[in-house]
Amino acid sequence: MGDHSVTVTDNNNHQSTVIEIYPLGSYYFGSKDPIAFRDETIADRVQRMKSNFSARGLRTSVQAVMLVELFKHPHLLLLQVRNAFFKLPGGRLRPGESDIDGLQRKLSRMLSVNEDETDHWEVGDCLGMWWRSDFETLLYPYLPPNLKVPKECTKLYVVKLPASRKFIVPKNLKLLAVPLCQVHENHKTYGPVISGVPQLLSKFSFNINY
Q1: Is 131 within 8 Å of 142 (Cβ atoms)?
Q2: Torsions phi, psi for 129 (to 5 deg)
Q3: 20-29, 129-138, 187-196: which range is least confident on average?
């Protein structure tokens, strides 16, 4: 198998970290039983967040940035919910759960046959952290110095995919490969977190394997 390698070196002769990317066609995609989603209004969701915050404090979520190759370009794997909005695979941590354990658990629940097989997800660098200052606002990529009690923290991690694997997706979700150039700064379609992923990936170089 040939490969196309790009190495980027900055003015201080520091090489950027390389992410290996493999063709979308080398992965298998199957389906499994749907997973339950709360059917709630925005007001219901805000009230639920307030109740959870009162009981548990800061909500911490972890999300996976996974890349594949298609048409010789890097594509980002996204979940589409109800044919409407997009999200990165992942979810909320349990109390006392580590970032890596929680992300591996969520990925297995959403994308594996067996939810208990969590160790085959290789979690890499943390790309960034997003903060919610109150229950109604969007997430922001910084924590204002005057914000003493944030309501939510979302952390993005690179998850390195092997050359081949099976993705088993709940029937009420779609797993889509979207070009990075389409996601970049497309807030209207993908929201602030996903549309900011290409910029967060700018410190990496991609080794695209064919």
Answers
A1: yes
A2: -130, 135
A3: 129-138
Interacting residues of 142 by C-beta distance below 8 A, sequence separation 6+: 131
Handedness of CA 141, 146, 147, 148 (dihedral sign): positive
Confidence of residue 2 (pLDDT cuts 50, 70, 90): very low
Token code pair at residue 92: 């909320």
| CATH code matching the domain that covers 3-209, chosen among 3.40.50.150, 3.40.920.10, 3.10.290.10, 3.90.79.10 | 3.90.79.10
Summarised one tens digit per residue, pLDDT across range 104-138 is 999 999 999 887 776 789 999 999 999 988 877 77
**Is 151 in contact with 58 (CB distance < 8 Å)?**
yes
Residue 34 phi, psi dihedral angles, 5° rounding: -60, 155
Q: What is the pLDDT of residue 16?
A: 58
DSSP state of 117: -
